[in-house]
Fold:
Amino acid sequence: MNWDALLEPLTRLCIGVPRRAEPLRRHTTLRVGGPAALFYKTRALEEFARISLWAHQHAVPLFIMGHGSNILVSDKGLHALVVYNACQRMDIGVETYAETGVAFRDVFLKTAQAGLSGLEFAVGIPGTLGGALVSNAGAYRSNIADLLIELDLVAEGVRMRVPPEWMEFSYRDSRLRRPNAPPTSLLAVRMRLQPDCRRAILQRAREFQRQRILKQPPESSAGSFFKNVYDRALAERIPNLPAPMRAAGVVPAGYLIEACGLKGYTVGGASVSRKHANFLINRGWATARDFEHLAQHIERVVYETYGVLLEREVLRVGDWNGEANMP
Structure:
């Protein structure tokens, strides 16, 4: 694709000026990733929709990103128009409207201050509301999908409002994470929240935040790298698994990784955190290839030890041709 030739028609749609070959490591929490063919940051919802419609209608590869907290971008980068979504308007109420570029934790803070409950689990979760929707973010037995009323989006060149069922949500998953997902830009949502005492809401959130601080490492990471395993038979045979998890049939991925002796295991500049084994951290000089090979090693060892193939929460994106397989 001739990206230079696309600059002029794209610029006519934009308030600002798109950039060529923007290094994506500047925009991901793992601090890795090669260049985007074209890069543009938008703060206006109608501009975001306009660019998305143009890209879909002209078959221009399009990748939407927010804070880059749940993606592993190849060292070769992304042969796509990367739109950084910074659309952040909110209208707070029992039915709350929010544009998807707003930080997920900020949606919680604004609604909590208004005495609205439902998003306490979002405290401490990195990334934007849009990223939370794609991965059906959640914690402490709550998920963003449970709060939704309607989504405003552009899909396959058409702007539409759809019910939550359109996303086909499941545990840390939606249709937009799957192979052959329809080209889609999530613009905004409406959510239903519950009135509650502001002090009680903030107290619950403080406890969730305390647990996160105790568990999560401070180094650059993408958050939880692998999904927890829902397997009652496995939970029954894992020694020392806490009773509530055993009863629920849930085995945390970090528990399996730690049980395999992989805390601190390192490939290049990427390591398994010694604080929480489900966090892969950048020691300061990691490449995307380091993270990919570290993840593959973890997957292989856990499978050989427990017969479980871990599923990733973090999405691998970009050009991985010749980069993905371990030597």
Notes: The domain at 218-317 is CATH 3.90.78.10 (Uridine Diphospho-n-acetylenolpyruvylglucosamine Reductase; domain 1). The mean pLDDT is 93. The two ends are 31 Å apart (CA to CA). The longest strand covers residues 184-192.
